[in-house]
Amino acid sequence: MQALAVWLYDTHIADLHADHRGRPGWTWSDAAYGRWGSQSRVVSHLLPVTSPGTRANPARVRVFLDGLLPEGNARTNYALSAGVAPEDTFGLISAYGRDTAGALVFQGLAEDAPDRTGSYERATDPEVATLLREADRHSPADHTLRGNQSISLAGMIPKIGLHRDAVGWLRCLGGAPSTWILKIAHPETSPVADVVDTEALALALARSLGLTTVDAHVLSVDGVRAIAVSRYDRKADESGRIRRVHQEDSAQALSISTADPTRKFQYGNALPSLSAIAEILRAGGAEPDDLLRLVTFNVAIGNTDMHAKNISVLRLPDGSARLAPAYDTSMHLHHPTSQRRFGFDIDGESDLDRIDTRALVAEGRSWRLPERRATELVTSTLEGLGRALDEVDRAAHPGVGDGAVETVAARVSSLLAGALTVAPAVRARRGPRRRST
């Protein structure tokens, strides 16, 4: 039986094995049980730690592992490069599981702890450009460039993981943690060529509101246009060593298979839903306040690509959980061909032209947030976004046209106009405040 050791936070937490048909299985270790105890969700909301030797639910294991891997054409490319079938989850994890989204490391049973493995190698601009081009092709990447990289980055958009120092880009070999993600841009002739530009601007706005720690900028590498995004799940310690921070996306946490990519969106289904994500946060000891702020922000900027894989939960070494910083967020409604459907229902509504402040507050209330708190969260986020739009350095985002910014500014103004009618109504129902004596 093939097997891999699964590591998390310097602990060998489980063994991943494949049966004679290649189906993955997960067996918890003594170390995981001893460190976190039974039912800890330090790995995943629906894969709690159980007693040593116990096998986790195989269907949930498969969905969770698939959530670490690319989707669609990107998964096919990874499989071709590794010489395995695209549906071979265990084979793909074996090839690319040394550096995944979050902090899990999958490696040989007899290998040293992952903090003692891996190295970096300088990458020239032409080499980075080749890696970006190959990420979007149905053929194996140039193995002289890939070397022994073993990085898995989930999602549909072709991307690569690299490290960066003061000199430039470095490839991550043998499981060394990547710290940046580079995504190739749409062709300049595409009607949505500015998606990477509006993503960089949206993340700058989100950072000014405290919704993300991510840094992003658009660059051209040897003629290949791309966006570089810093990884929030990588942190340097006092010695400068890169540490992984665990996370799972909401589709993984809800055990939703995204083999059909549309399942990432709610689109009339019971799941995924924002209320379910709010409950995941509460189960990890966090209130969903930041989730409501994040949703309000994405509604305001017109991000029609907000879905379950673009909302993640950080799972910290003490077993607690909190909302991950914003990522993969951009502006879409200025595009003439853009759909206007949000990825989640907001108080039963998904049409972005019909989602108003009242709907956002009502959605927050459905998560058991008090009405006054929900109103203040929505209003303060919109007000902060309005200020950020006024103050942002537009010269730093030359690829963003006036139409994109004006569309968002108009939406913020419209939503705030609705907010002015919500807050007085809340105060009226509560009655006047008592003065302290």
Could you explain how this protein is built, in words?
This protein has 437 residues and is of the alpha+beta class. It has three domains: 3-97, no CATH class; 119-230, no CATH class; 246-421. It contains 13 helices and 17 strands. The protein has helices at residues 30-36, 58-66, 72-82, 89-96, 125-134, 143-146, 195-208, 250-253, 274-283, 289-301, 357-366, 371-391, 402-430, and strands spanning 2-8, 11-18, 24-28, 105-107, 119-122, 159-164, 169-173, 180-184, 216-221, 224-230, 234-236, 242-244, 246-249, 312-315, 321-323, 341-346, 349-351. The strands form five sheets. A six-stranded antiparallel sheet has the order 5-7-6-8-10-9. It has a four-stranded antiparallel sheet with strand order 3-2-1-4. A hairpin with a 5-residue loop joins strand 14 and strand 15 (321-323). Helix 10 (289-301) packs across helix 12 and helix 11 (357-366) crosses helix 12. The longest helix is centred in the C-terminal third of the chain and has 29 residues, at 402-430. It is globular and about 60 Å long. The relative contact order is 0.10.
List keywords for this structure.
13 helices; 3 domains; disordered C terminus; 437 residues; four-stranded antiparallel beta sheet; globular; alpha+beta
Helices, strands, pairings?
Layout: E1 2-8, E2 11-18, E3 24-28, H1 30-36, H2 58-66, H3 72-82, H4 89-96, E4 105-107, E5 119-122, H5 125-134, H6 143-146, E6 159-164, E7 169-173, E8 180-184, H7 195-208, E9 216-221, E10 224-230, E11 234-236, E12 242-244, E13 246-249, H8 250-253, H9 274-283, H10 289-301, E14 312-315, E15 321-323, E16 341-346, E17 349-351, H11 357-366, H12 371-391, H13 402-430
Antiparallel strand pairs: 1-2, 1-4, 2-3, 5-7, 6-7, 6-8, 8-10, 9-10, 11-12, 13-14, 14-15, 16-17
